[in-house]
Amino acid sequence: MAAPTPTTDIAVLGALSVEPMSGYELRNAIQDVLGHFWSESFGQIYPALNRLREQGLVDARPGERASSSVFEITAQGRARLSELLSSPIRDRPPRNGLMLRLFFGRHLGVDQCMALLDETEATARSQLAHLRATHAEVEREDLPDAPYFLITIDLGIRTSEATLEWVDAARERLRRLDTMTSPLEQH
C-alpha cells in the first residue's frame, strides 16, 4: 500500500478548516474552489478522511442522509494542518500532455497542433470566466480566509490570461510554417 500523501491531508484538513462537510461536499469544494491549482479524487479523499479520523485529526457525525457523515477538523487536526503547511514544498516534476504533444508537434502537423491550441484556448477562457466569478463571489462574502483565497484565485486568473496570450503567440508561430508539407517531412 502506498504511503499517505501529505498534500492530500493538507487539502482535506484545509478544506475542513473552513467549514464541516460531507465527503461529497469536500470533493466538490476541492474541485470547485481549489480546482485551478489542486485536484483530489474520491479515491483519495475517502481513505484520507478515514485515516485522519483514526488519527483523531477529524471527527465525523451523522449527516442529513442516513448513509452520509459530516466531517469536522479537530484541534489536533488544526495543529497537524499548521505543521503540514509549514513543511517544505515537494513539487513533483510537471507532466503536461499538451506540452509533450506540441514539443513533438512536427509529427502531428500544423493542423493538429492548431486544434490542440483551440482546445487550450477554450479551456482557458472557461477557467478564466469561472475564476472571475469565484473572485467576485469571495469578495462579496465576509470570510476570514478571503484574502488568502483571493491570492490563489488571482494567480489562476493571471495564469489563464497568460495562457491565452501564449496561445495567440503559438498560433502565429505555427502560421509561419509551411502547411503544405506533410507532418513527417517538416524538419
> Gyration radius, to the nearest Å?
21 Å
Query: How far is the first residue's CA from the last residue's CA?
Result: 46 Å
Q: Residue ranges: pLDDT <50 for 5 or more in a row?
A: none
Number of strands: 3
Biggest beta sheet summary: 3 strands, antiparallel
Main CATH class of the largest domain: Mainly Alpha
Number of H- or I-type helical stretches = 7
- The oligomeric state is single chain
Shape: elongated
Average pLDDT for all residues: 87
Q: Brief overview, please?
A:
The chain has 187 residues and is mainly alpha-helical. The protein has helices at residues 6-18, 23-33, 42-54, 75-86, 97-103, 110-140, 146-175; strands spanning 21-22, 58-62, 69-73. It folds into two domains: 6-86, Orthogonal Bundle (Arc Repressor Mutant, subunit A), CATH 1.10.10.10; 97-175.
Describe, in plain words, how this protein is organized in 3D.
The protein starts with 5 loop residues before the first helix and ends in a 12-residue tail after the last helix. Strands 1-3-2 form a 3-stranded antiparallel sheet. The chain has 2 domains: 6-86, Orthogonal Bundle (Arc Repressor Mutant, subunit A), CATH 1.10.10; 97-175. By secondary structure, it is mainly α. The protein is elongated. The chain contains 7 helices and 3 strands.
